[in-house]
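HUMAN: Mind sharing a backbone?

ASSISTANT:
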Amino acid sequence: MRGVRYGEVLPIYLREDGLHAEVYGTQMLNDCPQHLWEKLDAAAIATEMGAVFVKLNGPRKWVLDGLGAKVAPVEPVLREFGGIMFRRIATIHLGDKPGAGPYNENKINRGAVFFFDAGKPVYELVNPEGKVYVMQALCMGVDASMSEESLPSLGERLKMPEGWSYRTRVLHEELVVDTTASLATVLQDEFENSYTLPY
């Protein structure tokens, strides 16, 4: 899966207990063609979906090596947006704010297992308490030149909060991130690269 491209559309809804996002992704369906992605109209999709607004998340590329058995947290509805097929794959309870912002955690109900192979590089953020988040996907939506080749030096570009650090290392053994029985903890940097808490 490393290097496989995808995109996501996130309609945001206002419900009694706050804002909720549904995540529609192209994963396992297509590579989110750029010429179609560029034409997506977030406002039009929001109107179509009855959402408060829509976040276009991507395009992105995986920097993990495998995806395990999926426990669908929501019915995996197929939808077409702008000629691209998407599947509903996860939900996010955002509470009273539309997004946590860079370096702040979100809890995501995705029911997935991620695999990072031994001998492969991983790219990590470390918070002041020593909590480590491993990058699951890079984003080309903010910086179109973002690639795995650029990630070893990404730390020089990040404006991290005080006490945070960025590092690259090669795994000595396989890393498995299993969120089939719990919510995933995910955050992003200012380039919208996504990191997951492994444990």
Q: What stands out?
A: The chain is about 5% helix and 45% strand.
